[in-house]
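Data deposition worksheet. Section B asks for the primary sequence of the deposited chain exactly as it was used as input, without tags or linkers unless they were present during the calculation. Section C holds the resulting structure in token form. Section D is free text for depositor observations; keep each observation to a single sentence. Incomplete worksheets are returned to the depositor.
Section A, Depositor: J.P.
Section B:
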Amino acid sequence: MQDDLFALYQYNRWATALLVKAVRQLSPEQYGQEPVPGWTSVRDTMIHVAGATDIWVRRLHGEPVTSRPTELDLPTLDDVVRLFDKAHDAFDRLLPTLTPERLTTILAYRNLAGNDYQLPVWAVLRHVVNHATYHRGQIASKLKRLGFDCPDTDFAFWAIEKTEGIVISH
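Section C:
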């Protein structure tokens, strides 16, 4: 199970890097605009994913989290990238410490709305990657609406690159 988690987190970092590269094509105005009325901006979605990734690793370290970062906290894409890097690095340090027993430990936490929840650590770890994947899909749609292509960030493409050493053109 741990090997699977290492692979998932390597994939997550890889997919985030590809997404950031695609988002860097946007002008500052495009980065902050709603691609369709009612849709949040690429910026807001990037801030949400980076913030959530950081929040979950902090919760796993026992920190109470009462707020998420906003545009004021992360005004530029470089600020968002720094938060992603901080969170990815924290997960990279955490994963090797997780024993099979720790993976089944129940994490009790309070969400940002003040509700109490409990779930196993293994579920949190999978949720973080699944959550990021979900929002990468949203960002891909937003990039397309803004006239930009988004790279293929599917897990299979990461696995192909790792297995065959072939870099899929992004």
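Section D:
The domain at 2-164 is CATH 1.20.120.450 (Four Helix Bundle (Hemerythrin (Met), subunit A)).
The mean pLDDT is 94.
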